[in-house]
Every structure is written in structure tokens, then in C-alpha cells.
Write a structure and sequence with these properties.
Distance between the termini: 17 Å
Strand content: 25-35%
Number of strands: 5
Largest sheet: 5 strands, mixed
Order of helices and strands: EEHEHHEEH
Structural class: alpha/beta
Amino acid sequence: MYGVAWGDEDRTIAVELKLRKWQKALHKAAIYQLWSDYSYVAMPKKVARSLVEPEDFKAAGIGILSVDTASKAVEVVLPAVLSTQAKGHYIGPYKEMLRR
């Protein structure tokens, strides 16, 4: 999932959704950092909360979102860090496409 938080700085946000395989999600979210300002992995609450030591996510600057599958509520477990890998030539076209 990809979106733009329109505002003063128009930040892009990418979210990788996974039910269980957090290692695979982490890998994909790391790739998303090339074309996104912030990158998150969203998982069911039970899975997200089981990551007691999310050091790999912290080290990569990737955030964790916990989704309550019953209520559909989303909680930020770990905020993402602004990507230092993001490339303007990737982000620019996405922003323009979403403006339309």
C-alpha cells in the first residue's frame, strides 16, 4: 500500500501488509525505503505484539503497525524513521500520479 500525507512537506508512506512472515515483510519494507519517505510493516495485533525485541525494525528505521482484526483499529507500535535511502526520482512520479 502506498500513499502521500499531503501537507507542508508531502511525505510518502509505504506499508507492507503481512499476516505472519515478519522477516519477509521487513525485507520488502526495506526495499520500499528507496521510493518512500516512511516505511511500515502492518501485521495482526497478536503477531505485532509478539515482536518483543523489534531490533531489526529499529535498525532499519522501519515502523510497525498493529492491526486489531476485529475492530480494524490500527496502532503504531514503532514509529518509522524518515528514510535516508529515498530517491527523489522514484518518489516524484508517485506523488504526481496520486495528485491526479
